[in-house]
Design a protein that fits this description.
The chain is mainly α. It is built from 25 helices and five strands. Strand 1 and strand 2 form a beta hairpin.
């Protein structure tokens, strides 16, 4: 069945609650492991139904935020998800208290049980109305940004179109259209401020209701983090500022000289070559065909995964009015299939994003037949290793899309961004810790704090004066800060691990890919620390590992710098 043919039906919450209560009662009173197992399976069925309808609704809403029907369904889910989360937490608590908890770990693994236990710290039935309020507020972000339009000389541009033009090889075009984009966002500045002010307020109320001083601990609980703490993150941030920031600053100084600029501006950062950045061949069909050849060659399982993705049309890459700007991969449990979403704007960055989302989707495909849906899930720090590592394996297919010289440029483009992303991503996480530790900050306080952090983490960045970004608003383009607090650092930790896979593949591609597939298979049943150790990666928190990795990558990048 193709995705467009899947019938959608709003979950009947009274029926789900009734079936859940019946199964939960049987689980709590089970006198044998068999009784407990099948009671869990009955709840799993209800979970698959609810989550599948929720995902389908969200996908169709993000495909067209102006569709009134699915806007209404998302309004329904902003409340229903909270009610369903209460059921999940009640089940999780029953698992933790069960006489069969050790045997249950054989079905859903001890790592899953640990994650469920951590999640429980961020929930209580008494905060249901606050969670509904938070969901409703965070749901405002996508419609707010999806309909932002920029205008120039009487022509209107979507944000996706502006993003492509702001990355033009011509500097004047970059400057002009970056300015148009800033102006477009600037028209919504007060709305961004108001929305985030409201989100911080309700999240602080949630923390207080749970007996916490800061929402930070609630965020960690929601993320199911069992392998590291805020204190570990503080140590990691220090290594980033000491090792990564100087290295990346040097990279941008070299770029400034190579481009012959007096001052590298923020809209120049993505322009690596005086002769022009790598440009893929145009058209979504070309992209899809190129990746089909790549996945056919990579392994039999990647071939089958991608063929199914195409045949069932579980993807949407077009740019349309009302479609959100962004990308994701989501899993539809009832149909055992991942869905890949992107606003593909035919840039090198968009190609990398497609590879990224295919990495998520491939992991979902490999675990899609798990008996219990909880085993298809994993902590986001592991999930982002799946996606970011696939970006590097996809290098094998880039010559067909960019040509021989273009593929070399793409590799340099990708690796440079992978390294330079780490300080930025770490800054986002640092920013969030500070925000939630100071819930009384005004919008102006937050803007100033972001500007202070930019000086520490990305000192090379320069904006035109008095624009949207120069005001300290660049973070307001980052959806994660609004919708998924404390998620962003997982991209950073994953990037460190993905770069290890990249260096490993330079030595032995076959061995590296085998370890990668092993990671995909075990992620739902392992903690972050246990999973990366099992497949042979070093922990990002291991002192000194960052310095060694950066040195190797700098050597690789030096061979790809364009000679003037």
């Amino acid at each position: 069945m193709k995705f467009s043919q899947i019938p959608y039906q709003r979950p009947k919450m009274h029926e789900i609650k009734s079936a859940w209560a019946n199964a939960l009662g049987k689980f709590k009173h089970a006198t044998s492991l068999e009784e407990a197992y099948y009671a869990l399976l009955a709840m799993d069925h209800e979970q698959r139904l609810f989550e599948s309808m929720s995902v389908i609704s969200e996908i169709r809403h993000t495909m067209d935020t102006n569709d009134a029907f699915y806007k209404g369904e998302e309004d329904f889910f902003s409340t229903a998800k909270v009610a369903f989360e209460a059921l999940i937490q009640e089940r999780n608590q029953a698992i933790l208290e069960s006489a069969f908890v050790e045997e249950i770990k054989g079905f859903v693994s001890s790592a899953v049980v640990e994650r469920l236990q951590k999640n429980a710290e961020g929930f209580d039935p008494s905060i249901q109305s606050l969670l509904e309020e938070e969901n409703e507020l965070s749901g405002e972000y996508f419609p707010l940004t999806a309909n932002i339009r920029g205008s120039l000389a009487g022509k209107e541009y979507s944000i996706a179109e502006l993003g492509k033009l702001a990355n033009s090889d011509d500097r004047e075009t970059r400057r002009i259209f970056s300015g148009v984009m800033e102006n477009a966002y600037g028209q919504k500045a007060q709305e961004f401020d108001r929305l985030f002010d409201d989100l911080v307020a309700v999240r602080h109320k949630i923390a207080q209701a749970l007996g916490q001083d800061s929402f930070t601990s609630v965020g960690y609980a929601r993320m199911g983090r069992t392998s590291y703490s805020p204190e570990d993150m503080a140590v990691f941030r220090q290594e980033v500022t000491e090792v990564l920031v100087p290295a990346v600053k040097d990279m941008f100084e070299v770029q400034e000289k190579q481009l012959g600029l007096n001052q590298l501006m923020h809209y120049d950062e993505s322009t690596d070559f005086k002769t022009g950045n790598p440009r893929p061949k145009e058209g979504i069909p070309v992209l899809l065909d190129t990746f089909e050849d790549f996945f056919n060659e990579l392994s039999p399982r990647t071939r089958d995964f991608y063929r199914e993705l195409l045949d069932r049309e579980f993807y949407d890459l077009e740019i349309r009015k009302g479609k959100i700007m962004g990308a994701y991969s989501n899993f539809v449990p009832l149909f055992h299939a991942p869905f890949v979403f992107e606003t593909y704007n035919e840039t090198a960055g968009a190609v990398r994003t497609f590879a990224h989302e295919c990495g998520h989707a491939y992991q979902s495909y490999l675990v899609s037949k798990e008996i219990f849906v909880e085993n298809t899930k994993n902590s986001s720090d592991l999930a982002e290793i799946h996606s970011m590592t696939m970006e590097f394996f996809a290098w094998k297919g880039m010559q067909a899309l960019f040509g021989k010289e273009g593929a070399k440029k793409y590799q340099f483009f990708h690796l440079k961004r992978a390294l330079s992303f780490i300080p930025y991503g770490t800054m986002v996480d640092d920013f969030q810790h500070r925000i939630y530790d100071h819930p009384d900050w005004t919008p102006e306080d937050r803007l100033q704090e972001w500007k202070n952090l930019e000086t520490a983490y990305i000192p090379w960045r320069k904006y035109p004066e008095d624009g949207f970004f120069d005001q300290g608003r660049f973070w307001q383009r980052q959806v994660h800060i609004y919708k998924w607090p404390f998620y962003y650092i997982d991209y950073v930790l994953a990037q460190v691990c993905a770069l290890q896979f990249f260096l490993w593949a330079q030595r032995d591609q076959t061995e590296a890919f085998a370890a990668y597939e092993r990671l995909l298979e075990i992620s739902g049943r392992r903690t972050f620390a246990d999973a990366i150790e099992e497949v042979g990666l070093k922990s990002p928190f291991q002192p000194g590992s960052m310095r060694e990795m950066v040195k190797e990558i700098q050597g690789f990048l030096a061979t790809g710098e364009e000679k003037q």
